[in-house]
Each structure stands twice: as structure tokens, then as C-alpha cells.
Design a protein that fits this description.
alpha+beta; 6 strands
Length: 561
């Protein structure tokens, strides 16, 4: 039993020295990390082109369909260089809709090769939807109103004629002719919807043919706040379509397309083999655990501790299984995207799966560095510090949550960084790391002296508490664990009962029978293991039933007395 347990807990290097056992799982992981990294690099380049193309079209549509659009709004900066894109009077409201409809009708004048959704390229009428309260009238002169809170939505298609392209269009007259009116006192939102198709030649090359896209465009005039400011926004949803063009030139590049698919299949096969090997190792470990528990109970007349039982769970293998599943799913979606089998936008899901899987694959390399004492310091330090840091972080998170809710409530209406719970948390986390402190102090815009002084007290106390106290205490916990690992040898670390059993009286390495079939250390069958687990559960259930019966009997007797 000691020899089997000793061999089980050996690392691949020790197993190679003892039995010349070849580390198949290690070789699979090396092959996998190379293939997955190459696959991710190729996909990242393609995805960047896709996202950049979609963003470029969104900017184009903003210039074509939004009146007085300023190019400064296309630059993502903080704080924003311009205020919100909004309108403030009825003439601007109607002219904004008119400009978008006329721009859609004259889409053939755009530099981009955009077409209407119909197969013969005839114009498809856009849809205008008006969302409003059922009744809403305000009589401000005598502080009275008539209001019905039921929300209604009315939609109609905008008929576009040839005269409209040259003479213009009036949405106000069009609504009047269709017996519809806009009551701004009850208006919540106006949405203008239409779609366009195009072909992207930029994606064409040795590895892929041109892509065909449908862009669903929605222009929203938002009046939900009813503060006299109607926010204007444009949203674009891209969908990839099946192309019908002449792509005969691709025949010269079938080898490149085949190699790209072959890489995806190799990744799937490698990850499948890796997952099977890790699942088999975990299964065998559980069989050995139940045999060890039975040995402790029958031979040593003791119970194996929870730390000893936990030692049979290899978290590295579990992490490898998770990243294998993520990469297999991501590679499958990637292959279908490249084969044009997905009608829609699956790039984000595929990138999340492949990116997370690749992240865990690189984390898994740390396992093999732990076999060398020189590189094992990080893992041992994290393992030693994990219990203390977890308790410390729990206490720190309670303080952090209190500051989040307080800042969101008090400073949110006046400070752009505290407008929501998410932005408040991001702002406070940035302050902990010393980012943009002065701007956070100066952005506070309020004439209230009370709130101004409160904001200073709030920010000074948070920064002082978390930077000067909590972060330093957190670092001291990590440093203390590192010093413990550095100054103490492996023998000084407290051992579990399983480690004591293995080390005390273990036969020397030279006495190992190299020809012994130690792979068959699990002498109990799977049926016996399941039976042992089930019997143990039945015994515990029977004991619980006896205890419950005695408690009920005692309570009934006391009640009768």
C-alpha cells in the first residue's frame, strides 16, 4: 500500500526515474499549447478585421443618417470631449427623422456598396415606431395634468417615392396624413428601423472568400427622462449572410483552407485525448482513495482525514479538463464560422471560449514548473497564503461594498464616475491603484456645500484606508507566507496522516520492483467501489434515522408528561 501510494504521488520526472514511465500527459500538454496558441493567433487576426469592419460601418451610418454628426464623437476618450448627442426643440426632432429617411432613400450616393434588402434591390420601406403613454397632458400654468400610465407602441411603414429623394421629406406631414400625431408630453421613444446589405472584399485573400453582411440599423430618439432633452442614438447589429458570388479564384488556395481546417481538427483531437487521460487519472485516483480509506479502517483502525482524502483530487487535472472543454467548443464554432455554416454573429462567443481556454492552458504549464524546487516558490506561497488571504479579502470586500453603495447613493447624481454600481466599483478600484485621483476630486459638480465636504471626506477616508492600511496588510500576509516557505524546509511543514503513513516505513526506491505492474494499483473494481460508497451512505442514513426516531420519541414523551 505504501509503495502504491508513493508511486501515485510521484511527479512525472520521479516516475520516469523509477519505472521509466513515459509522461504521455506532459507530451500532450506541450503539443496542445503549441497548437492552441497558433490557432488563437490566426483567429485573433481574423476577428480584429471583423470587429474593425463592423465599427467602421457604424461610423459611416452615423454620418449618413444622423444630422449634424460630429467626428469628435467617434474618438473614445475620458472624460468625453463632447456632451450627449441630443435635440431640444420640435423642429430639430422632425428634421432629425427627415434626414435619416432621406439618407436611407439616397443610399446609392454613399461610397460604400450598400444595397436594400430585396433581391431585386428595390427599396424596402423603413419602419417608424412610436412608444408613448396612453394619455399624457400637462397644464403647467395651473399645475394640473391628465395621465394614463399604460405604455402603447404604434408602428407604420414609411412609403418612399422618387420625389422624396430630390424634394425632401416631411415626417410631420406624413404622420398627419396617416392620422397620427406626436404628443411630446406623453412621448417616450421613437425608433426608426431599416436594414442594408453589403459585401466585404477586405476579408478576401488566401484564407477566406468575401463576406456578405446584413446590417440592422435602429435610430432611437429617447425621451424617457422627459427632461426636455431627447437623446439620439444609432445601433447597428451585423449578421453574416450566405454569399452567392463568383468565387472561383478560391480553387487555387484549397491547400491553405484545408490546412486551416486541419489545424482546428488537430486541436479538437488533442484536447479530446488530453481530457480522456485526465478523466482516467482522476477516476483511478478515486478508486485508490476508497481502497486507502478501507485500508485505514480495516488495518490501522483509524479514519483517513479530510486533508488526506482531498489529496487524491488533482486540481490541475480538473483545470485541464475545463480548458479542454472550452477549446473543443470554441474550435467547433470557429470551424463552422470559417465554413460559413453560421448565419449570424458568433464571433464573440467563439473568442470568449478560445481565449479563456488558452488562458487556462498557459496556467497549466505552472504545474510542470513545480517539479523543480527553484520554480516552486510561487505555487507553494499561493497555497500557503490562500486560507489567510481568503479570510482577509472577505473582510475587505465588506468594507469595499459599503463604500460602493454609499458613493453610488450620495455622489451618483452629481459625479459621472458614480452614475451606476458598476462604474462606482470601477472608480474605487482605480483609486486603490492610484489612477486618476485628482480628476475624481475635481469632477464633483454640485453647489451644495454639504455634499462637497462629504465627497472630500468620503474620498480621503477611502483612499487612506485601502491604500495605506488594507493593501499593506494584504501584502504582509503574502510576504509572511513566502518567508515561511523560504525559511522552512519541506520536513518542517506539518504533514497529514496520509503523508505520515507514506513516509514512515516506506521501502527505499532501490527496492522497487521495476517490472511490477504498478499501473494496476487499483485492485478493487469499479462495482466494488460504488458498493462501498453506497453501503457507507446507507449506514450513515440508518444512524441518522435512529437518532431522529429517538429524538421524536423523547419529545412525545415529554409532551405527554
Amino acid at each position: 500500500m505504501r509503495n502504491r501510494l508513493s508511486f501515485f504521488f510521484m511527479n512525472p520526472i520521479e516516475k520516469w526515474k523509477t519505472r521509466r514511465r513515459f509522461p504521455y500527459k506532459f507530451l500532450i500538454q506541450i503539443i496542445k499549447i503549441i497548437l492552441v496558441t497558433v490557432q488563437l493567433s490566426l483567429f485573433a487576426h481574423t476577428r480584429y478585421s471583423h470587429v474593425n469592419y463592423t465599427w467602421g460601418n457604424r461610423i459611416t451610418f452615423s454620418h449618413l443618417f444622423l444630422k449634424d454628426w460630429d467626428a469628435a464623437r467617434e474618438i473614445v476618450s475620458y472624460p468625453p470631449a463632447l456632451g450627449p448627442y441630443a435635440i431640444y426643440n420640435t423642429d430639430s426632432f422632425y428634421s432629425t427623422i427627415n434626414y435619416a429617411i432621406v439618407g436611407y432613400a439616397n443610399i446609392e450616393n454613399a461610397i460604400g456598396s450598400y444595397s436594400f434588402m430585396s433581391e431585386d434591390n428595390k427599396i424596402v420601406y423603413p419602419m417608424l415606431c412610436i412608444v408613448h403613454y396612453k394619455e399624457g397632458k400637462i397644464f403647467g400654468y395651473n399645475e394640473s395634468y391628465a395621465f394614463d400610465g399604460e405604455v402603447k407602441q404604434e408602428c407604420l411603414n414609411i412609403t418612399i417615392t422618387d420625389d422624396m429623394k430630390t424634394k425632401g421629406f416631411s415626417i410631420k406631414d406624413y404622420l398627419k396624413n396617416n392620422n397620427m400625431t406626436l404628443n411630446f408630453s406623453s412621448l417616450l421613444k421613437v425608433k426608426l428601423k431599416f436594414s442594408l446589405k453589403t459585401v466585404n472584399f477586405r476579408a478576401a485573400g488566401k484564407f477566406s472568400p468575401p463576406d456578405c453582411y446584413k446590417f440592422e440599423i435602429e435610430i432611437t430618439l429617447n425621451n424617457e427622462d422627459m427632461d426636455g432633452q431627447v437623446l439620439v442614438g444609432l445601433d447597428v447589429n451585423p449578421f453574416r449572410l450566405n454569399c452567392k458570388g463568383d468565387i472561383e479564384y478560391i480553387t487555387d488556395n484549397k491547400m491553405e483552407s484545408f490546412l486551416r481546417s486541419l489545424l482546428n481538427y488537430f486541436v479538437i483531437i488533442t484536447c479530446t485525448i488530453s481530457m480522456i487521460l485526465c478523466c482516467r487519472a482522476i477516476f483511478r485516483a478515486q478508486l485508490l482513495k476508497y481502497e486507502t480509506v478501507k485500508y485505514f479502517e480495516d488495518m490501522l483502525k483509524s479514519t483517513l482525514s479530510y486533508s488526506g482524502r482531498w489529496a487524491f483530487w488533482n486540481l490541475w487535472y480538473i483545470m485541464i479538463i475545463i480548458n479542454d472543454i472550452l477549446i473543443i467548443c470554441g474550435s467547433t464554432i470557429k470551424e463552422r464560422i470559417e465554413k460559413k455554416q453560421f448565419i449570424g454573429d458568433q464571433w464573440n462567443l467563439c473568442s470568449v471560449l478560445l481565449g479563456t481556454g488558452n488562458l487556462l492552458v498557459w496556467f497549466g504549464v505552472l504545474r510542470y514548473l513545480t517539479f523543480f524546487k527553484t520554480y516552486n516558490g510561487v505555487i507553494l506561497t499561493l497555497r500557503q497564503a490562500f486560507p489567510n488571504t481568503s479570510r482577509f479579502l472577505l473582510c475587505a470586500m465588506l468594507l469595499y461594498a459599503g463604500f460602493i453603495f454609499c458613493g453610488w447613493l450620495v455622489l451618483g447624481p452629481y459625479h459621472m464616475k458614480f452614475r451606476s454600481l458598476a462604474s462606482t466599483s470601477e472608480c474605487l478600484f482605480s483609486l486603490i491603484n492610484g489612477d486618476d485621483m485628482y480628476a475624481t476630486f475635481t469632477i464633483m459638480a454640485t453647489k451644495s456645500t454639504l455634499l462637497w465636504w462629504f465627497s472630500r471626506l468620503y474620498l480621503y477616508s477611502f483612499i487612506s484606508l485601502f491604500i495605506y492600511v488594507i493593501i499593506n496588510l494584504f501584502l504582509s500576509v503574502i510576504i509572511d507566507s513566502y518567508e515561511t516557505i523560504k525559511n522552512h524546509s519541506r520536513d518542517d511543514i506539518p504533514k497529514s496522516d496520509l503523508e505520515i503513513f507514506i513516509t514512515e516505513g516506506t521501502f527505499p526506491t532501490s527496492t522497487f520492483d521495476i517490472t511490477e505492474e504498478t499501473d494496476n494499483w487499483a485492485h478493487i473494481s469499479f462495482t466494488q467501489a460504488v458498493k462501498s460508497i453506497f453501503c457507507s451512505f446507507c449506514i450513515k442514513l440508518e444512524n441518522f434515522g435512529k437518532w431522529l426516531f429517538n429524538e421524536l420519541n423523547r419529545n412525545i414523551i415529554n409532551y405527554l408528561k
